[in-house]
Amino acid sequence: MPANLVFSVMATAVAVFSALELAMMRAETPEQFGIVVRWIHVLVWVIVVSLVIFVRLYLRAGRQWLAWAVVGLRTVSLILNFVFSPNINFRQITALRHVSFLGEPVSVPAGVPNPWMLVAQLSLLLLVIFVMDATIVVWRRGDRRQALMVGGSILLFTIAGTVEGITITWGIVSMPLTASLFYQGLVVVMAYELSYNVLHAAGLTRRLEASEAGLHESEERFRIVANAAPVLIWMADVDKLCNFFNKPWLKFTGRSLEQELGNGWAEGVHPDDLQKCLKIYTEAFDARKAFVMQYRLRRYDGEYRWVSDQGVGRHDAQGNFAGYIGSCVDVTELVNKDAALRESEERMRLAADAVNLGIWEWDLNKDEIWATNARRALLGWPAAGRIGFEAFISRVHADDRDRVRQTIDDAIHKGKDYDSEYRLVLPDGIVRWMATRGSVHLDINGKPARLLGVSIDITARKQAELEAQQRRDELGHLSRVAVMGEMAASIAHELNQPLSGIISNASAGRRFIDRGDVDVSELRDLLGDIIADGSRAGEVIRSIQGMVKKGSRVSQQVNLNDLVGKVLHMVKPNAMLQSCELNTSLDPDLPAVDGDPVQLQQVLLNLVINAFDAMHDTPVTHRKVVIATERNVDGAIRTSVRDYGVGISEEARERLFDHFFTTKRDGLGMGLAIVRSIVESHGGTVTGENSQGAGAKFSFTLPASAKTSAA
Amino acid sequence: MRIPPNSLVFAIDDDASVRKGLTRLLRSAGCRSEIFESASDFLKREQHAGPACVIVDVRMPGLNGMDLQETLIQRRREEQLVFITGYGDISMCAQAMKAGAVDFLPKPFRADDLLGCVERALIRSAEQRRRSLEEDEARTLLGLLTPRELEVMQLVVTGMLNKQIAGELGTAEKTVKVHRGRAMRKLNVTSVAELVRLTEKACLAPAANV
Predict the structure, then answer these.
(1) Mutate which of B1, B24, B114 to test chain A, going by most A C-beta atoms within 10 A?
(2) Residue A10 contacts by C-beta under 8 Å, 6 or more apart in sequence?
(3) What residue numbers bound the domain in which A659 lies?
(4) Which candidate from A499, A500, A504 shows the least CB-CB separation from B24?
(5) Of 2.40.30.60, 3.40.1110.10, 2.60.40.420, 1.10.10.10, which CATH number belongs to B144-209?
(6) Chain A contact for B20 (CB, 8 A cutoff)
(7) Could you identify which of A594, B22, B47, B105 might form a hypothetical disulfide with B11, taking C-beta atoms 3.0 to 4.6 angstroms apart as the criterion?
């Protein structure tokens, strides 16, 4: 340690310096004193140079040029010291005075000071500046203790020694030179500082030993953890050879540690994966990079399992590369799942394409629609590129646009599922019916972020539906015509009554005129009756027209009591012709239903006519039909027609509402089938059952109108 | 139109228009008429003494036209029936005609047809009435005879001689003669031919058929 050498030199110099100071105090003659002072400068030079070197070496601070300046100037002053006589301090020492110092008689000089002495004193000043600068550097470096202790005390003692020397040599005070005391203080401080380092080093050594013991302990702990971990762990040394495998690894492969060590582990890797595996391992190792690889590793039972192996470099406490550590997880299930997922996605896409199912997603924030390629192609959109909502809605049939917008709006703002059927107008002008279903997905703030759904081309279904509807309408119409046929007697009767009235009245009128016996007021009444009968006949015709006219279904609020009234009027003649009693039992405050009045009238008419027909063989006195309306507990409205006829036979019960099933000799078997189709298209149900006593009761139940009825 | 004196036409129909029209038509033809809404209402009325015609709808609530016809026949009434119907069927028509209806008219009927029927019906009713009066008269006269005289008369109208009658009755020819003379006086007839006409009026069959 050079600092220690410097310290030794300096300590020796200080000791000699003290001895020379003593010699100065005991000097007998001025010449003697002068010589001692001359030699003392040699020691000052040694002390100054030692200090400069100590600061530079030990504190690793101080400007180099200042150091050189201090040493240079001191050397110059030393040379001047030997040039001048007696020394650099005095031109001439005239006498020695004897003063008492601490109770001892000592010699102090009296003489002419040498102005060249300033050079020596300047060098000491430079030394102070050099040390001050170095101390500041050390302080700033963070070694505050060192700055205060070493830098501070060097400054303090240097300044004190210098000031004493100056004041004495310039004859300002009269006392012996005792600067060695200050330099001894310096020596003590330096000695402490140097020994502090030794002590510190000893402490560090102890700590190091302790930490090494801890290292062993932590390595042991690592082994325990590694063996308990549910993953396979390996470690490799810097030479790429593996030097550790945890117990789960050995259990997994079913091999011993000795077998696995080094490159033994590679034997368990599936031959197809080995090359790739080794390549990744070596390359990552050489580049000191972390790596992840998947390969098949043979399990104890011989089955190759997919493992995901992650390796990272490991470093010792000093940060030196110490090899690799890695962990493996059995990902066979995941890999299979992954493959299954890919497969299922592919299957899904194929299925979607096969049934022309489109999958789409609309990003609400970016207004960007993603859709499967088939769907984009259908809509004439390029395979790539941004598609916004407006681009989509512009393809929707103009008549459906507002409705679609509204449905989507509801879906977004009310969180309803989006379910809609609409028409698309394709670029070539062809109109296709689409059904789409979707739901809104919220972002983490609960705000709607995406609309996700599927759409399917339902054009064929829609066409079939339309055709079916047309067929139903036609069938309904035919059935109504057929009912009118069954009611021919009744209708004829209905028409013949007013016609008889008209003819009778008109004939009577002509006779009155012919006889010349005209009572004007009588004639007026007579004509009034003719008009009334004419209107009545017209009414009958209109009601028939209403029943037999073709037309698509309308929906309006219908009060079933009114409907019963209308049907009653139509079938009254029938009832009479068959001597059948016709009663009603109506709920006076019946809510309306939504429906087509003509179709519902057809339902009731069919049921009533069936009731009549069921009583062909019933004695006249027992023939009775009761039409009732009532409200069910659930608010639905039930209308029933009860007869006292033959009832429903066991074999007929099953097929009651089937098409072409009839028990009538000349029946078509359409009546009840149409009744059911109409009632069901109105969201209702129809039932037929035998009544207690005799006969059957047919009822149809319709939901009450959602709108509050004005009636 | 020839309407027998004191004749009355009844019209029964459940339809107000038809009733009103019929009333006017009958009045225009100079017929007295009464209208009823139902057959049972009509039956509550006492029987008209003069010639009567009933226009009735076959199909009506309650008692229908056919029921009415049956009732009238049971009660031996002489009203002549004219059926009208809104929807006639042949079997009913045949049944009605067999039971003595004047005619069966489908609605809407021609006024002249109906009035023609009414006329025929009234004439038939008047005739019926006259015949039934004569029968009553004959029956009254025959009622004056003693049983033995009636027995003898019944045999006389078969064309038997007194001697044959006496043999038939196991009595003397002279006794038969006495009974026959007394009966002829009571019946106010002078010849066998008159006696035969009288018994025919009284609808008495010859004794062999009794």
Answers:
(1) B24
(2) A46, A47, A50, A51, A54, A186, A187, A190
(3) 553-711
(4) A504
(5) 1.10.10.10
(6) yes
(7) B22
